[in-house]
Design brief:
The protein is an alpha/beta fold. The protein is built from 13 helices and eleven strands.
């Protein structure tokens, strides 16, 4: 029988180099993720391999080194910056005699901690249950024991089968509730489109400053902090742009490299706000050395949810840290493609408002010129 060890808060982090770029950035991101989940980082173990070990992911020798690090640091938790197979997780916990979690489990835990709205909590629970469903068979062998005793012997449903059935029923219930909420969100979006209001969604890598930018521009009070995934629930506000009137600006959940697919699926209703936008403000942390990879990671998620073709304006944020001057870059057709701003100090926000005004003007001209566009047309407010 194998009972999983209790979890702790003093953690040893594990980063394995399989030949990827920006390993130091990946490890720094893991430290931020662990801190956001409430863990105290007691140590770090690095490894370099060509491919994961089938049984222990890091190999027998490195697993022994990891055990020594746990004892030296008096830690009771191991966090891998990688996805572990259920068997690998079970083998590591047996060998190390402590709780082992992977990157997906860590991100799910942070999402559970951050979710505030009813919809957000449902989405997180759905993602957690779908992740758990893959780990019932090999992670918790005590669930395989069938109840015995007088009146209970013979063929029947094992505890594992019972748990799997109950889990499946709960997943079905959650999907039904989220489908209703998604319909309600769709009604609100259609209402905005009938009023000919430009819809703009703020997207970007987590902790790039999206919520700070949203608060500064709309005078809202959305939660903003120097944490990964500080914002999970979509918040929308009207933004007045003078002669072009109002637009709707939405703050959305931040993206991250290797975002778990269960989260993308569970947060489909929230991400629909991004898919239904007319324009995306792609916020980039200009002070990050890994910003190019972060931009690529965001675009990968946008493509995955069907928002890859929506026009973007790159918002080069945090210029107060890089000492860049506020400016707006235009392409050969005189369209604004990138704006340098500081959401914290307000530098360059006038340029961003001008870019949004241009997009809104093009949007209204398109609406006036073609009240009933073909269903297959794809209007680009920046390319008119």
């Amino acid at each position: 029988m194998f009972d999983r060890p209790k979890s702790g808060e003093r953690a040893v982090l594990v980063q394995v180099d399989f030949g990827q770029d920006a390993i130091d950035e990946r490890l720094s991101e893991l430290e931020l993720l662990a801190g956001s989940a409430g863990a105290s980082v007691a140590g770090v173990v690095r490894a370099k391999r060509r491919s994961p070990d089938p049984a222990l992911y890091v190999g027998k020798g490195k697993a022994e080194e990891l055990g020594e690090a746990l004892r030296d640091c008096e830690a009771d938790l191991v966090i891998f910056n990688h996805d572990l197979a259920p068997g690998q997780q079970r083998n590591l916990e047996r060998k190390l005699e402590c709780r082992v979690i992977d990157r997906t489990s860590l991100i799910l835990d942070i999402f559970a901690l951050r979710a505030q709205s009813h919809e957000g909590k449902l989405q997180v629970e759905l993602a957690q249950l779908e992740h758990l469903a893959t780990r019932l068979v090999r992670g918790w062998t005590h669930l395989e024991r069938q109840k015995g005793g007088i009146g209970l012997r013979g063929p029947g449903e094992t505890q594992l089968e019972t748990d799997r059935r109950l889990l499946g029923e709960r997943v079905k219930t959650l999907r039904g509730k989220l489908a209703k909420l998604e319909k309600q969100r769709g009604v609100r979006r259609r209402s905005r489109s009938r009023r000919d209001v430009l819809s703009v969604s703020i997207v970007g890598y987590t902790n790039a400053g999206k919520s700070t930018l949203f608060n500064t521009m709309t005078k809202a009070d959305a939660y903003a902090a120097n944490q990964l995934f500080a914002t999970l629930d979509t918040t929308s506000r009207r933004l007045y742009l003078g002669e072009v009137g109002n637009i709707v600006l939405s703050d959305t959940v931040g993206f991250i490299r290797e975002l778990p697919h269960t989260l993308v699926a569970a947060f489909h209703a929230t991400l629909e706000e991004t898919v239904g936008a007319d324009l995306l403000l792609h916020v980039v942390d200009s002070s990050s050395e890994d910003r190019d990879a972060q931009i690529e990671a965001v675009n990968e998620v946008l493509n995955e949810i069907g928002a890859g073709d929506i026009p973007q304006i790159l918002v080069w944020n945090k210029i107060d840290k890089t000492r860049l001057a506020p400016q707006a870059d235009r392409d050969a057709c005189d369209r604004i493609r990138r704006v340098f701003v500081s959401a914290r100090t307000g530098e360059g926000l006038d340029l961003l408002r001008s870019a949004l005004t241009e997009a809104a003007q093009a949007f209204h001209e398109r609406i006036r010129g073609d009240e009933t566009p073909p269903a297959s047309s794809s209007y680009d407010p920046l390319h008119s």
